[in-house]
Amino acid sequence: MKYVIIGNSAAAVGCIEGIRSVDKTGTITVISKEPYHVYSRPLISYLLYGKTDEQRMKYRPDSFYEDNGVKALLGVTAEKVDYEQKKVILNNGAQIPFDKLLFATGSEPFVPPMAGLDEVEKKFSFMKLDDAKALQAEINPESRVLIIGAGLIGLKCAEGILQKVKEVTVVDLAPCILPSVLDEEGSEIVQKHIEEQGVKFCLANSVAQFHQNAAILKDGTELAFDLLVVAVGVRPETKLAAAIGCKVNKGILTDAHRATNLADVYAAGDCSESLDITVNQQRVLALLPNAYMQGETAGITMAGGEKRYDKAIPMNAVGFFGLHIVTAGSYDGEAYVVKNGGNYKKMVSKDNLLKGYILIGDVARAGIYTSLIREKTPLDSIDYELIKEKPQLMAFTATERAVKLGGTKIED
């Protein structure tokens, strides 16, 4: 069996390990535009910050490809897939045959049209290792950095460079930071903490015009800068899949086994969609743990095993300047909110189920809340009042405790 994976991040690793759990001998080829051993993308801000280095950023040991019998074609681009002939054509002219193909192509930065952007000489994205290296090569203690985008990518960039530059200003069209992750109260708490470190914000605003090293905002404010980082968002990389007839919405559509509508073709990670069980909708859930689990499911299925990935939920675990945040699920429902100093807890329930939560500051035992959402545990089957105050296993029935401690599997 010839397996080919286009992409080389968490979904690809999951796929490789999934395949090898079933098929020890089939050939696996990984094709990646980036020339690097698989690394953890969320760590690029820590590379700038000085908390890690390229060796420690690796998502698997140096021997990973060799240990798993993988041929890694790094620094080459898959230009086309010939589905009829079952081969991938590379930019160097090579043709890689496959029996089973996984698209793990991830996402690309989204750069909206902005007047005068072409005039800006030093502009960067912040998604890949090369982006971090390029930015690191340009920053100095006198640099004024303007970041467009107050989402996860923009704020992690701000954290990574703040101590190495003169000033960092973040502009976003939304009225609050992390609008896709936090509610208004949570955003205010995190924004205040980040501002206390020295980051400046211009929210509910956007760039009307760039003039070389100055940005004129829509309210007339003029911001001078030396370096520009555009971190507005990302879009799933679906072009190769769409070109051969895979069904694509925002991301590539798959079933619970990660199979597309085309035989022998699969998709996993940020390029694909999953069923978000908290809102019962197909969505792109661009999160590393989801990507790995999707890839593992695809790999096991590709190799002839049985695996489903049908408990996908949006989830984030992130920190900014020492303040920890964990969120999961959706926030549509009845809210229970507790604010205590720098700590914030919001739990949202609906139809006798926990649908989502936000924890800021004290994030201990967040996994119990996540489990309640994933497993769709009826709240009247546990001591929900105790769980809201103090997440602990004693709030579950004896049978449920045994399952969560790894002792028993409840049959449907």
Automatic annotation (TrEMBL):
Cofactor(s), by name: FAD
Top-level lineage group: Bacteria
SUPFAM superfamilies cross-referenced by the UniProt entry: FAD/NAD(P)-binding domain (SSF51905)
InterPro entries in the record: FAD-bd_OxRdtase, FAD/NAD-bd_sf, FAD/NAD-binding_dom, FAD/NAD-linked_Rdtase_dimer_sf, Rubredoxin_C
Residue intervals passing through the bilayer: none
Domain NADH-rubredoxin oxidoreductase C-terminal: start-end pairs: 314-377
A Pfam family matched in the record: Rubredoxin_C
Keywords from the UniProt entry: FAD, Flavoprotein
Limits of the FAD/NAD(P)-binding domain: 1-295
Signal peptide (residue range): none
PROSITE patterns: PROKAR_LIPOPROTEIN
PANTHER family: NITRITE REDUCTASE [NAD(P)H] (PTHR43429:SF3), PYRIDINE NUCLEOTIDE-DISULFIDE OXIDOREDUCTASE DOMAIN-CONTAINING (PTHR43429)
Protein name: FAD-dependent oxidoreductase
